[in-house]
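Researcher: We plan to redesign the surface later, but first we want a full-length starting point. Tokens attached.
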């Protein structure tokens, strides 16, 4: 019975996962029945997968010293559509201003619409003069922090997904996208190969220039397939420090 070993290279990180997939079968092998899931369970799986995709995209395209930005609104917009219109105009201005400096704007942002009236835009973007943000965002406060996680931005991705879920729940539906990203982002490099059940080892292996992230080592049984999985992350060792 074949399992899959997936390796994802995303910036300074390498994610290694071993799992069973219904999509891969040897010739003549019968397909096992999928486990039935409740709508809530399926929703959690979808959110987890979205978080993984977003984490990998962030890790591939951003680095320490780039910016984590929160944009506020002095005048509360009605909801997602108005926020999106204001943000689209701001993005066009940012792109123009950065181009003047010889840089190209790279970003990922998510809208937050809370049940008690909160309205924010959360964004990661490449490093720039914060005066550019002030010039391009006349709608409220601007909060800026540099990225400092040595290329692993899983916590930020996790929060972004929470903001997107909160917005969807507040508005009763997904309006637009979970997150918005510039078209110039690079994609992580993902490779997959079939391994046999006999070669399925729950062993995290490091490689030269990298170290294992201890909290990333996880194993268990998939709620979808019922089969075992094993996953861990390597991160590039930075002997000099940050960035």
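Model: Full-length starting sequence:
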């Amino acid at each position: 019975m074949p399992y899959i070993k997936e390796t994802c290279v995303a910036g300074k990180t390498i994610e290694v996962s071993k799992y069973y997939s219904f999509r891969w079968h040897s010739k003549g092998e019968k397909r096992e029945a999928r486990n039935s899931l409740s709508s809530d369970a399926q929703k959690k799986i979808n959110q987890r997968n979205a978080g993984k995709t977003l984490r990998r995209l962030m890790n591939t395209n951003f680095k320490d010293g780039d910016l984590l930005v929160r944009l506020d609104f002095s005048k509360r917009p009605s909801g997602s559509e108005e926020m999106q219109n204001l943000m689209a105009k701001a993005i066009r201005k940012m792109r123009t201003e950065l181009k003047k400096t010889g840089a190209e704007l790279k970003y990922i942002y998510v809208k937050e619409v809370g049940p008690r009236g909160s309205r924010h835009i959360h964004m990661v973007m490449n490093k720039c003069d914060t005066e550019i943000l002030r010039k391009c965002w006349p709608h409220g406060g601007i909060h800026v922090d540099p990225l400092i996680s040595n290329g692993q931005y899983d916590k930020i991705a996790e929060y972004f997904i929470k903001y997107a879920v909160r917005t969807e729940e507040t508005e009763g539906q997904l309006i637009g996208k979970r997150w918005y990203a510039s078209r110039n982002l690079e994609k992580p490099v993902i490779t997959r190969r079939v391994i046999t059940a006999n070669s399925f080892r729950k062993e995290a292996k490091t490689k030269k220039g990298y170290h294992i992230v201890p909290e990333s080592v996880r194993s268990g049984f998939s709620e979808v397939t019922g089969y075992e999985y094993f996953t861990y992350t390597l991160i590039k060792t930075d002997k000099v420090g940050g960035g």
